[in-house]
Write a structure and sequence with these properties.
The protein is α/β, with parallel strands linked by helices and about 400 residues long. It has two domains: about 150 residues, Lyase, Ornithine Decarboxylase, Chain A, domain 1; about 230 residues, Alanine racemase (TIM Barrel), CATH 3.20.20. The chain has twelve helices and 21 strands. Strands 4, 14, 15, 16, 17, 18, 19, 20 and 21 form a nine-stranded mixed beta sheet that branches. An eight-stranded parallel barrel has the order 5-6-7-8-9-11-12-13, surrounded by six helices. Helix 3 links the parallel strand 5 and strand 6. Helix 2 packs parallel to helix 3, helix 6 runs parallel beside helix 7 and helix 8 runs parallel beside helix 9. The longest helix is centred in the middle third of the chain and has 19 residues. About 5% of the residues have low confidence.
Length: about 400
């Protein structure tokens, strides 16, 4: 999004024109930013054989999946439904890695039936999988490196108390299961968390992952998951992807020489690819002043964007109706019957009822975590691609609220 001649534009289209056309609240995705992020990451690891699998839990609209497929991305899926979306979007099954957590063997079998790559993160399922498939179906092993990484304890997945992955201290048990079932392990994987700023966290994890990988003789790839931090505030810090690419590629290439063959370096970015590509527009319903606070109350709430309430996440907010003007302080809140504060004491150009406020970094874990709480409708999604806007999800209506409800006969 850029400000030109006192008008906010997304790929050349005025934001207020988009809101007028599609109404509010409204999710907007700019595909040029997705392409920029994908190419930046690809370039950072150009000295290694790299594969980028998009973590589609961040934003799973099938049109976004198709855009990423055209860029050359694979897919990281965490449910069989995401696997099915990926196949529907046209991904080759072998370009989809299925990494579920705490699911039954039956769900994993659905992935096998569809021909996708299987990533297993607990010994119980590994044993069951081995008993059934032996070496007929290759697997990837997800380890827990016991590294504390991530910007919030709810998104830190590699520490000792995490439910994710198999502890590195259980590696001898894993090797016994694999040997007893003559299993073919094609990959080894870890994911330590999200919003990791420190490059050294990845490099420490690399040493653990490489040491563990030496126990498996038939590997084709080493998967580092993701967790790259993106900037949320103006002048915010972000993971130095270029520095990481240089350092990690060097270590990976050295490891491949020790291992005896060239492997593929895999990453699974979600937020890094789509967060900055997303915008969320909402209309100001009311300006409410109390004895201590001036509230800007919007036509949306935690039912549409829960990250500020769930993760204490910061989203930069702009008054796109008034790019210039007097600055005042507002607490921006939603319309849900619950405390749904988007931001305390935000400096915005003077806000009037009817103005459109825009949330930045609304591409990842925003619509994907939306709900019908308070029986509110979920908003529309649009995509701006090469200077044109496209509706990619219709706004819900009352029929959608009733669609799967079953009304029992009267008198019961």
């Amino acid at each position: 999004m850029e400000l030109k001649d006192n008008v906010y534009l997304i790929d050349g289209i005025p934001v207020l024109d988009l809101v007028k056309k599609y109404d509010s609240p409204l999710y907007i995705y700019e595909t040029a930013v997705i392409k920029r992020q994908f190419n930046r990451m690809k370039s950072a690891f150009k000295s290694s054989k790299v594969k980028i699998n998009y973590a589609c839990k961040a934003l799973s609209n099938i049109n976004i999946l198709k855009i990423l497929k055209t860029l050359g991305a694979g897919l990281d899926a965490v449910s069989i439904q995401e696997v099915m979306l990926g196949l529907q979007a046209g991904f080759n099954p072998k370009d989809i890695t299925f990494t579920p957590n705490c699911v039954s063997l039956e769900e994993i079998e659905m992935g096998v039936e569809r021909g996708v790559r299987i990533n297993i993160d607990n010994i119980s399922i590994l044993e069951q999988f081995g008993h059934k498939y032996g070496n007929k179906v290759p697997v990837c092993i997800r380890i827990n490196p016991h590294i504390l990484g991530g910007g919030n304890n709810k998104i830190s997945t590699g520490h000792i108390d995490s439910k994710f992955g198999i502890s590195i201290h259980q590696l001898p048990h894993v090797l016994r299961v694999i040997e007893a079932n003559n299993m073919h392990v094609e990959g080894i994987h870890m994911h330590t968390g999200s919003d990791i700023l420190d490059v050294d966290v990845f490099l420490r994890g690399a040493e653990i992952l490489f040491n563990s990988a030496m126990n498996f003789k038939e590997l084709e790839y080493v998967d580092f998951g993701s967790g790259f931090k993106v900037p949320y505030k103006p002048d915010d810090y972000e993971t130095d992807i270029e520095s990481l690419g240089e350092s990690l590629s060097q270590k990976f290439n050295e490891f491949c020489k020790s291992y005896g063959k060239k492997l593929t370096l895999v990453f699974e970015p979600g937020k890094y690819l789509v967060s900055e590509a997303g915008y969320f527009a909402a209309r100001v319903n009311v300006i409410k002043q109390t004895t201590a606070t001036v509230f800007a109350g919007l036509d949306t709430g935690l039912n549409h964007l829960i990250r500020p309430m769930f993760y204490d996440a910061y989203h930069h907010i702009i008054n796109v109706s008034k790019p210039e003007g007097k600055t005042r302080i507002y607490t921006v809140v939603g319309y849900i019957c619950e405390t749904d504060t988007f931001g305390w004491n935000r400096k915005l150009t003077e806000v009037s009822e009817g103005d459109i406020l825009m949330f930045r970094n609304a591409g990842a874990y925003c619509f994907a975590m939306s709900s019908n709480y308070n029986s509110r409708y979920r908003p529309a999604e649009i995509m701006v691609h090469e200077g044109k806007d496209y509706l990619i999800r219709k706004r819900e209506d009352f029929d959608d609220l009733l669609r799967n409800q079953v009304i029992v006969p009267e008198g019961l």
